[in-house]
Amino acid sequence: MPPKEAYDWLKAHHVETSVLESMGALLHWDQSTMMPGAGHGHRSEQFAALAKLTHERRSDPRIGDALAACGGYWDERDPIGVEAANVREWMRAFERATKIPSDLAVALARAASDGETAWKRARPDNDWKAFQPYLDELIRLRREEAEAVGYQGEPYDALLDEYEHGETAATLEPMFRELRHEIVNLLDSIKGSSRAPDPSILNNDYPTSAQKQFCRQVAQAVGYDLKAGRLDATAHPFSTRIGPGDVRITTRYNEHNLSEALFGTIHEAGHAMYSQGLPAEHFGTPSGVSVSLGIHESQSRLWENLVGHSAGFWRHFFPQARDFFPCLKDVSESAFLFAVNEVQPTLIRVEADEVTYNLHVMLRFELELALLRGDLSTTDLPAAWDEKMRDFLGITPPDFAQGVMQDVHWSAGLIGYFPTYSLGNLYAAQLFEAASKALGDIESQFERGNFSPLLSWLRENVHIWGSRMAPRELVRKATGYEPDSGALIRGLKSKYAQLYGI
Amino acid sequence: MPPKEAYDWLKAHHVETSVLESMGALLHWDQSTMMPGAGHGHRSEQFAALAKLTHERRSDPRIGDALAACGGYWDERDPIGVEAANVREWMRAFERATKIPSDLAVALARAASDGETAWKRARPDNDWKAFQPYLDELIRLRREEAEAVGYQGEPYDALLDEYEHGETAATLEPMFRELRHEIVNLLDSIKGSSRAPDPSILNNDYPTSAQKQFCRQVAQAVGYDLKAGRLDATAHPFSTRIGPGDVRITTRYNEHNLSEALFGTIHEAGHAMYSQGLPAEHFGTPSGVSVSLGIHESQSRLWENLVGHSAGFWRHFFPQARDFFPCLKDVSESAFLFAVNEVQPTLIRVEADEVTYNLHVMLRFELELALLRGDLSTTDLPAAWDEKMRDFLGITPPDFAQGVMQDVHWSAGLIGYFPTYSLGNLYAAQLFEAASKALGDIESQFERGNFSPLLSWLRENVHIWGSRMAPRELVRKATGYEPDSGALIRGLKSKYAQLYGI
């Protein structure tokens, strides 16, 4: 096969696979939002048939032949050119897929499914011992996967690479160590402050119908295109790209709390704006796909925290919020801003504030790294968890459900996934700082309800690139330097110094 | 391959194909109800990729080999046994698919798509000449298809057989001739009656939110299982089976008219109850699939007309309707019943009443038969249409949009499809008469809101059989005699004699 023909075949094959795979996104969205209860059995059949089909297509041996034949088609001098990047990423994915023996892949899928089921059953009973053998099996299998895939430093790197290509335990440990040190110090200062927000401002009467309208209005105002999306309600909020022109988000409404739905909406809108900014003409190829979990999370956290919790944002939106919610009539803008930015160590990661959130993530990173290195056994994991909670956050979980068993991730075999949450925060701060430098007084743009300069900057510097560069390279190209924790630390310190007068 | 192994392979292959195909039902449902406008382009890609995949699977040459190898596996003495029926239907479908050359299949798909586009453009302009060449091409191609597939009587039979297996022009013509004669007479008597309903009763203030609740309540009361379904709003109502446990319906609300949404809901609920009654354990095989368009329509029309327009039904539901709709406060039950059963010749098939509806269908049947036989050219079709409208219904269309160009069917190449609508009415009446005989005083069961005996009877005599018998055989087994127009004529005569005092 001549190189051009091989390349064209690879492209057509992968695009068709992605189109078929994208039906899975609709199956999932529908299952969470619309499907009648009795539809679950058939929906599982649909997922299974589609997974079989796409697995066959992604491991089709003709991919290997075409990859071998397409060399020389693209311009070698442009490693981030569309063709070069596509071929590089197709090769990486195909190699990873073919290195994992199919019986290991099947065992992993089964262990993940069994693990999640066991976790769901054991968690309400605080029954660590019932869940432990499933976690042991998952760790064993994922170690096996790491050996099959290969690594330079240590087994953990092979798992992390799947979620955040190019990162390793060795790149993360120093960044996270510094971040943890600074955050623990900041948290101490905050605890020592005499100022405190009034959290009852947010826990008041917020009718769901008004929240729905307000959330739509905010999502649209920051740049989420509802003509190419939808906002629905689900128990567990998410964002999903069904295809170009169809990127949907969900949120969860609590009529006695405004934060949950509102910041959830902005978070998911951040994910969705990334998806809406991916180049549609490259759909189904690496150049048209989001690059990593960390970069995805950077977009959601940037909009949720650095935009949605900022003074400029609320100078614009508070008057509108007051029109929607009569309970805000006698609340001042500054009291409201302080309330949404309350810092308070809590037990549950997904409910944590912007400052303490990263401590939850680093705790998990350190523990899973120790598990993979063999420095910690699952028998000792619950005690290690509690010790780190005391160490980092100064609180002790009353039970496993609110401690070591709170997250679904490990039960589904997702080891190496957690650090991408903090990487997201770190990238977000670094990108936001660079955008602010480029765009001038960004807060006063927010104040005027003008979010499009920021979105355009993100489009040009992040979204449009798809997976043409590794995350680290993308951040360097956008900001001028390698990812580090500096911008995040600077941002948190300056913001909370002002709020808490420290 | 030993027979059992061949059979098992056929079953697994077809079930998997059906599971994949069922994602198309979700794509379609979502497109009509939920999808954002900008999602259309990608949705077309999804439909195309899925169609390609399922076509490949349905014409996989291994099917032919397995069919040849599985002979003798089932009990020859039981032709409607599950295995015998499955193999017979797999063979019939595979033969039809392989007899049609693939370039003809492609040409037909393209002509159907082009035809529909041309129709949509030409119809608002009343531009028959712009549409005519597309229809000519479709007729030419479908004649070619008929020759490829083969027939015993005439080419039309090969097309009709696809929608209503076992029926031919020769079986339909005498039934329809009798039906037309009787209905034209009945219509004359009705026109001569001094009684007339007050149609303003139904064209009043019917708030959409109340209609939504009432429609749900009625659909559920007659037996549509909402735990395994949904009711949503769409421009063009439909029912779709996404899989066992997930059969959804839609309707259209008009706040100044109750009939549209309500009878639309009951009609689609009738389709859906058939789908919900198909044996889930046979999903993806002929034994678990609806048998024909006519039988499907018999279920929707039975519930819409013979139940939903009956005196017993309204004795039960009218008090509830009054609670929902204040405009019914001073309306009597008998005036309301007469209003929903008004007979009035009109131009548009889909808006026609129970009596005149069949005249619209028979007009189309006679015209398409003449076109296929070469007795009529498309140049003369509009004049022939208008002549039959005068002849059957006594009215003349003012333009093509309300005449020969009103339906989408021919523009998409659906020739031989229309008669299944009248077959549905005819089967419905015959099945309803048999059920009434078996169940005793069915009207007084309705009066007490008890619809489950009728639904159970339909489950046992129709739904549960899937496609194990041809439609004609199914009706004979359920009612004791071959389909004819007797029950429909008897039912209409007796009902309208009472209402109109004729």
TrEMBL record, chains A, B:
Zn(2+) binds at H267, H271, E297. GO terms for molecular function: metallocarboxypeptidase activity; zinc ion binding. Keywords: Carboxypeptidase, Hydrolase, Metal-binding, Metalloprotease, Protease, Zinc. Its cofactor is Zn(2+). It catalyses: Release of a C-terminal amino acid with broad specificity, except for -Pro. The active site is at E268 (proton donor/acceptor). Its EC number is 3.4.17.19. InterPro entries: Peptidase_M32_Taq (IPR001333). Binds 1 zinc ion per subunit. Coiled coil: none annotated. The keyword Acetylation does not apply. SUPFAM superfamilies: Metalloproteases ('zincins'), catalytic domain. Pfam families: Peptidase_M32. It is an enzyme of class 3 (hydrolase). GO terms for biological process: proteolysis. Broad specificity carboxypetidase that releases amino acids sequentially from the C-terminus, including neutral, aromatic, polar and basic residues. Belongs to the peptidase M32 family. This is Metal-dependent carboxypeptidase.
